[in-house]
Amino acid sequence: MSERISDSALNALKIAFTYMPKAIEVTKYEYGDRAESVLEHIEAVREVLLLNDVDPEEVYGEINPESTPNSSY
Max alpha carbon distance in the chain (Å)? Predict the structure, then answer.
């Protein structure tokens, strides 16, 4: 997918991404045989965010600014 998505779809994707587990949290113990699939889904969402000029590491703070600590730099 190399097309940009609409602003409303991008916002919905950002919101969904904030509720997804972090890749480091996905283990065979927690997810069993689905672990690899979950990691692929996380990567697919990250790729779409990046294609739309959104830094996945900044999404949580954008969606939930009230619960994000202030930057120390």
Answer: 40
Cβ-contact 56, 50 below 8 angstroms: yes
Instruction: Quote the CA–CA distance of 32 and 37 in Å, as a whole number.
Output: 10
What is the model's pTM?
0.82
**Cα–Cα distance list, 7 to 10, 20, 25, 73 (Å):** 5, 20, 29, 29
pLDDT tens digits along 21-47: 999 999 999 999 999 999 999 999 999
Q: For residue 25, count other CB atoms closer than 10 A to its CB.
A: 11
Per DSSP, the residues of 15-48 read HHHHHSPPGGG--HHHHGGGHHHHHHHHHHHHHH
